[in-house]
Amino acid sequence: MPEALAEDRRARESEHAWMLGRFVVPESKLDEVGEGGRELSVVTELGERAGAVLYVEGAPLDEIAARGERAKVRCGGARIPPVEELASFVRGCRERGLVFKATAGLHHAYPTAAGEHGFLNLLAACVFGDEEDALRAPAGAFELDERSFRWDGREADAAELARMRAELLNSIGSCSFFEPVEELRALEILA
């Protein structure tokens, strides 16, 4: 926990701190976080609680929606879901009007040779549909700048991206902050 807190502090002091959301902490380690005004997501036996919102993984999407909760999907870690499974999850959430959070393994903008999913690919799947194609799109397939996010002749402006975040893909979680930032810099998406 001390290393994670030091890394979080470094991220909050960086020029890209605007990309940070909540610090995720297991309920059993809450006492190690201390004070400091940092917004937390607390992982309990029920799921991950972010304020009044509970993100649940592993339960049927219909049950999560019926309880008024949000869904959570792991994109890596001990198991990387195949493209078809992740695409089906995204479609299922879209069809039910269910907001979700994606975690684990989303360190890279594009898919890796090891089969890891790209966070830009997941964003495209949520914004544009065509989930399998978006999740498989190769490096360089997307353009993202202050004006819009673009793929395959389609474009989503800031208002559309904000709507998608409110209605479908709320956030991504990653144990690394600087790895995705450096990758976005290398792609010249971030300065």
How would you describe what is shown here?
This protein is α/β, with parallel strands linked by helices and 191 residues long. It has one domain. It has helices at residues 2-12, 30-33, 61-66, 83-96, 119-128, 131-136, 158-167, 178-186, and strands at 23-26, 40-43, 48-50, 53-56, 70-74, 100-103, 142-144, 148-151, 154-157, 169-172. The strands form two sheets. The chain has a seven-stranded mixed sheet.
Secondary structure: elements and pairs:
Blueprint: H1 2-12, E1 23-26, H2 30-33, E2 40-43, E3 48-50, E4 53-56, H3 61-66, E5 70-74, H4 83-96, E6 100-103, H5 119-128, H6 131-136, E7 142-144, E8 148-151, E9 154-157, H7 158-167, E10 169-172, H8 178-186
Parallel strand pairs: 1-2, 4-5, 5-6, 6-10
Antiparallel strand pairs: 2-3, 3-4, 7-8, 8-9
Q: What is the compact description of this entry?
A:
With 191 residues, this protein is of the alpha/beta class. The protein is built from eight helices and ten strands. The protein is globular.
